[in-house]
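Chain A, query sequence.
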Amino acid sequence: MYRTAEISHFEAIRRLMPQWTGRRSRNGVPIFVYSVSKTRPEDLLTTSKKDPSLSSVFLPAEYSTQFVQPLCARMHVDRAMPCSIFIIDLTGVSVRHFWNLRAHLQKASTMATSHYPESVDKIFILGAPSFFPAVWGYINKWFEPNLTSKISVLAASEATAVLTKHIDVEDLPAAYGGAVPWEYGMSPNLDEETRAMVGRFADNWIEGPVRYVSREDGDEICAVGAETGGLSGAVLAKLPACSA
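Chain A, predicted structure.
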């Protein structure tokens, strides 16, 4: 389904889910951010009319496992494990907003932890509102037991200090005390090393699903999906062969 996903539907779902900043942590795994306050219930309603069961929430997870994680592993000296760090930003979320999104959040959380349990390195929850302690017991049930140990709820006073233990300042979004001018909803802001590796693709980011394909003569980044404007199957970037 990932390789044949309609681009418009894929992008509608992606905008409701964690998004890659374009940067990696110190141990080489990609950094994703999910700003819950920017997920609008009306957008969710529009998407759910096309997919009432919200079964397509797995598409962004496939984007991560089929493209982002292998690319970041390629860039890291130790060939990092295929997993990701997630920053969940609850700043400005009201009780009503949370309640309107609860089915979506539960479906996405359950899907990620049930079907992609090893894809999570750490989850940092920031900007928790005053009502959060009252709903944490409810939210906690969405996750598999072995994942809860990877979740840290950070107070505003400690967020930057804790995050920079795992993420260099130059790879952390400015909103969280870093130096990257990236905000939720933007295209990935690649570091210079990754930009050099992917070439022109860095400045010609496309919408829709993408795959990282390993080949003996050099890895490729390829477009997939049902509406790529003639790009489906096209090689977006050719990476040099890995040295022995």
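The first strand starts at residue 19 and ends at 24. The first helix runs from residue 7 to 14.
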